[in-house]
Specification:
By secondary structure, the protein is mainly α. Helices cover 85% and strands 0% of the residues. Helix 2 packs antiparallel against helix 3.
């Protein structure tokens, strides 16, 4: 998944590749879902670490990362919504 996101990032960065606003919106929604999934995964890792006796800085760091990823996922969703609204206004 990481390699695919990196390849997509390279493609998006290339000005020679044509994109539509709708494609960009879909990409942002995909990024949002991916990051939200990562947040859930980090929360699961946090719980596993705690259950395995690693409460403290290690599980704390995983917990903080889960929260940050969740926030980023929500911001990406907001960006996708803003792109969608801009596209509708332009139509």
């Amino acid at each position: 998944m990481g390699e695919a996101a990196s390849a997509l990032g390279d493609r998006l960065r290339d000005p020679a590749v044509a994109h539509t606003v709708e494609e960009i919106e879909q990409v942002m929604r995909g990024f949002s879902l991916t990051v939200e999934g990562m947040s859930v995964g980090c929360a699961g890792v946090t719980e596993w670490l705690r259950a395995a006796g690693h409460a403290g800085p290690l599980s704390g760091h995983a917990s903080v990362m889960a929260e940050r990823l969740s926030h980023i996922g929500k911001e990406l969703a907001r960006l996708a919504e803003a792109i969608e609204k801009a596209q509708k206004r332009a139509s």
